[in-house]
Write a structure and sequence with these properties.
The protein contains 18 helices and eight strands. It is mainly α and 476 residues long. It has three domains: 104 residues, Fumarase C, Chain B, domain 1 (Orthogonal Bundle); 264 residues, Fumarase C, Chain A, domain 2, CATH 1.20.200.10; 59 residues, no CATH class. The strands form four sheets. It has a two-stranded antiparallel ribbon with strand order 1-2. A two-stranded antiparallel sheet has the order 3-4. A hairpin with a 2-residue loop joins strand 3 and strand 4. The longest helix has 36 residues. 40% of the residues are buried. The mean pLDDT is 94.
Length: 476
Amino acid sequence: MKARSKRNPVQPANDAFLNFTASIHFDARLWKYDIAGSIAHVHGLAAAGVVTANEQKLMIGGLKAIAEEIKEGKVAFDPKLEDIHMNIESLLRSKIGGAGAKLHTGRSRNDQVALDMRLYVREALSDVVTDAVGLQEVLLKKAKGSTTVILPGLTHMQHAQPIILSHHLLAHFWRLQRDIARIVDCYHRTNISPLGSGALAGTSFKIDRNLVADRLGMDGITENSMDAVSDRDFVAEAAFTLALLQIHLSSLSEELVLWSSKEFGYIELPKQLASGSSMMPQKLNPDIPELVRGKSGRAVGDLVAILTLLKSLPLAYNRDLQEDKESLFDVIDTAGASLHALKTFLAEVEFDEVRMRKSAEAGLTTATDLADLLTTRGVPFRDAHAIVKGLAIEADGDDQRFLALANDLISKKLKRGESPETDYLSIDKAVERRNIDGGTSRSAVMKQIGQAESALQATKESLFEMEKDVSVIDAL
């Protein structure tokens, strides 16, 4: 039998118990945030007169020395100490002696871990926004170079109406923009300090909580100590924003997989970013988008695990909350890796503009334009829809036959003395007719590109402020 832990040496426990309850094997990645929170806490203790100036200097120096040793790989964490918090406190006591025993004054592991998680999540969200901006920049660059490329827009995976490739790529840009907006909102709700809440009821020491929060670059302090130590809304919200981001990446990846197939042939796979087959020598496979698509399910699973964990927990802190970390760490790692991989892949993709155009010219994609024309001639749209549907059925999928029938109908609808418009049902003219804000005409798309550039700049400004907060940790 071994000591349960150095925190509680009275009750013995076996290795199985220690292995089951310890979290150091996964919460070790919080070490930087735990040390930063401890340094800020020491400043709070000193300002409250709880520790002397000499003890303050000694404690902060010791914590910084421990941080350097961890960076250099010189520290082996002890699983008998259960978690990262107890490990760092033990290292400090070994390094500076009795003064290290004062570190935990006015603090509980409950508010300590809540702080560590908030500091970790805010930095992770900042990093994800950086990666998302990188993918947006690739999409925007591709969009700028594709304003004359036409392909068929699809609904239900069937040819619908012709669109400009830029318009299609920008649809993914705006999805990412919404993801970024949600992440930034989550960041600000996360960037609030719970330190000073103690185990659940606060602390009797007159620690200036705002002073500690300011030193950590946080926007403020929590309002209620019980809520502060039990709140993991920011964990669930971060997991949701990243799971939804991953769903959007999966949608983009699905299209890239389809477009790389012989049936579509819209893109050429980057040879250095695709794999061959172990059996079929002619194969080249879209591994990166397939893996991103697959990892979306993993991200959703992480979110469900976190929400299920939080269900039915009474106030205040419960040990169940130890289980939030692995799922959170995984969804963050998954989103970051997926964004980076997809950005690299998409940057190397080449579009087959000729194949796209030929595909847009097939499938009766300008049939709606004929119905709209009839509507301008006084035919109610539902009646016009039925007339054009009849022509489509008569043409039986033959584009040339449909155009012949359509042009004959147009001639019959011309007013006396009115000349027929050449190639009224061409895909180029169909695209240009959608000259409305948010539409697919070239002028509308150029306006949209300008809006995307402005949105990207605004995101970078927000990101700059976030990075300033995060950088405070390394400066402590």
